[in-house]
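User: Modeling request: complex.
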Amino acid sequence: MEMLRNFPCFSLILSMGAAIVSSGLSGKLARRLNTVLLMIITLLSAGTLYLTFTTDTFYVYKMGRFSAPWGNEIRFGNLEAFMALFFCIVMLLSIWGGKKHLKKEISDFKENLYYVLLNLLLSSLLALIYTNDLFTAYVFVEINTIAACGLIMIRENGHTLEAATRYMLMSLIGSGLLLFGLCILYDITGHLLMSNIKEQVSILTETGEYQLPLTVAILFIGVGLAVKSALFPFHAWLPDAYGYSTVSSAAILSSLVSKGYIFLLIKVFYRVIGFEVIRQSEFINVLFIFGLTGMIFGSLSAIQENDIRRMIAFSSVAQIGYIYMGFGLGTEIGMVASVYHILSHAATKSMLFIAAVGLTDVSGQSKKFIDLTGAGYRNVAAGLTFTVGSLSMVGVPLFSGFISKILFAQACVGHAYKMLPTLICLAISTILNAIYFMKTVVRIYTPVKSEYASLPWKKDIGYGVVCILFIVMNVLLGMNSEPIVELIRSGIQMFG
Amino acid sequence: MRETIIALLPILLPVFMGTILLFLKRLKERKVILFYTGTGLLLTGVLAWNVILNAKDQQVTLFWLTEQIPVMLKPDVLGKVFLMVVTVVWICTGFFSFSYMKHEKNERRYYGFFLITFGILMGLGQSGNLVTMYAFFEFMTLAAFPLVIHNQSREAVMAGLKYLIYSFFGAYMALFGLFFLCRYADTITFTPGGTLNAELIADHGQMLLIIAGLMILGFSVKAGMFPLHAWLPAAHPVAPAPASAALSGIIVKGGVFAILRVIFYLFGADFLRGTWVQTVFLVLSLLTVFMGSMLAFGEDILKKRLAYSTVSQLSYILFGIALLEPTAVCGSLLHLMGHALIKSTLFLCAGAVICRSGFTRVSELRGIGKRMPVTIWCFTIASLGLIGIPPTSGFISKWYLATGALDSGIAVFQYAGPVILIISALLTAGYLLPVTLKGFFPGELQQEAGHDTWKKCEGDRLMLIPLVILTALSVLLGMFPNSMLNYIDGMLSGIM
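Assistant: Request completed. Predicted assembly structure:
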């Protein structure tokens, strides 16, 4: 059992090491290394989860020789381990699902670079999940940004370069704000380790000192991470970045990268500032309002979109809005709902991106709806997967989206003044979701005598398996949510 | 275990068989498809009757969706009544389609979804709590969608989308009730007499009334109650005739069934009696009764006329429910059964006429009675049933509805109800009987050129036998209602 405590540290070092090694490998070897790495880290995370789950406590792991408050720490409980496990699985599936496109869309001598970036991204995600040190978190936020930029522009065409530049600009604004926030926090508390800051913050709130700087720090950190995770109205970079990059990148960016920042924000809430302080500040009301507007406007933009990939991207804006809305409720159960929605959305959105690319493949690579007519017959696996993903997004029972909707609604029922706005926005957003997703599903199942119908579509077993795995994951989340919710709840308690 | 198997078999078998049929692309032989579908229908029928005869009124929990919400089946008397109606009508329309769909494309898909919907309806009837019912309700909407848009003309797809959006909208309105009921009710398992927790609701009576109103309004979308009835006259005429028969006979009854569950098994009749919700419900249903008849009266396209008639007749049932009075509810249930039999007969007759003679408008139907005597006789008998002439079932149910209204003692409505019912019955005669009159007494038709007027074009046996069976059952229900009345008597005293 003692051995298991080292696993998070191992996975961090392994992923960074793999990134370095990959830079000297050929594309093919790098790909294999990445697959093996992801599988190993999946196992390691499972081991970690086993450890925290059976002992039902969290662990603090000292990095290096110095102990707190000078050294660097890793801290993990149920939720961290589960997130790492889940992120690895989604990443693996996203890469497998887009494998064919990677080969086509990336020039050969850059293929290994792609895997270098992926490994770096993975390491930064793991670091964001595990670290107990705010400055380390900041460093890995930057690594994450750079890796994500690379993933977007590796396709090397005008659209992706523009999208990557935009992404870079917005992300840097976000990181800048985050850094400001951290500086102020360091200034008034004198610490960088999360647990130490929290002690100081609780003293500060008792004495009432430094209230203004503290509020400003919270604001900077919150807004910075919100910009990076594309909360409405900071979402302008998102549709291009997700819409034009190669499909694995889009799936990983939408389902993991933005979620990594959100997870960091949750950690800041619980472990740095203290949830009680956050709850009493006005800040969560700001998040709440932006979350609600995001839910509506994201869906409205998605309805107007005529490009399937960009439509899915805009739907992400709406879903991120759901997550922030859950934060904004300021209750434990709202937080649980948000974390569940992180999982549910990560699983569903990557699934939709992978399914969408299967559909565009059999429609002459066109992403316009008119060309997608009947694509569901031409590529059965993709059509089915897209349908399941849509049903989950719309919130049909047995799929994961329904559970997150139920959790959100249960969280807001009984809330004094946030209940009605939440319920109304949930309803409107759901109807809008239904409109554009069902429209697409009907479209891909409308038979048409198109020029693509006769194209020989080679059966791709690997792709089919990925599709099935995605469906299974979604249904598992949807039908078996009880243990997962329980896990999230215990994990959040371990945060405190 | 035994109970679980009994309850699950009629759900899983047709869903399984239907799904297989959808994926059996190689299967082109029409006879094999028909044989397969027929076997599936009959087997499911047998299994359904096994539930009706052998299942005990006991909960079967399948799995837990979230920690408070199980998915469970509970075949009680109301559910069994629903199963009876579904089984009879579904099998008859199924066999009718064998002949009707001969000239349509994509038969395999039609039968696949026909079987799947059958299974889902079995689940809807047996569902033991609100979430399970909601899940099956959504699946019913989705599975019936391909039946609506079967011919995939632009008109059909638009009507189908209308149906889908309206249904989702309604279902989400109803879903809100779930969020609140989880909090304010002891359980969301259907319990005769309601499950509201008197202590918890003490201060929230008004809010829960709004919720009850929303739920009723939400589920009434499926039952075509004003103001959300517009999908019904759009969707029915574009669907193939057996599909519209199934829609009108069964799917819309799903909405009625859900409302019965919500009122009598969750909120409880006492909670709603005398409140504004009841008044609104009464007003809307009466308005719909009248409006539907008027619209039907002015409509020339036969299937559309029948669709408006469905709008009107379903609100008879809803009116009876809204009175919250045992006699009236009894009348509602009888009308539910009677209307399911009668309206499917009428739609099938219309289908036979369209299929054999190509006429779609009532004004074209002169002399049709001589060409298709059996069909038009069935049409006539069913019409008499709907108008409410003894000894058909319509008479008995309307009798109960009217006495129930008089007994209820609700000011205005106790008199307004019967009056409007009678006016509407007259209108019903006005819009149904012309078909018979013109059909059997064409007048001077022989002289018109281009008509090979007297040529027989009666449907084949597969068409006629289901028609005759349905007609006979509707008459039998009217002549011997006592067995049915005895069956539901215990249930009625339980819920009120």
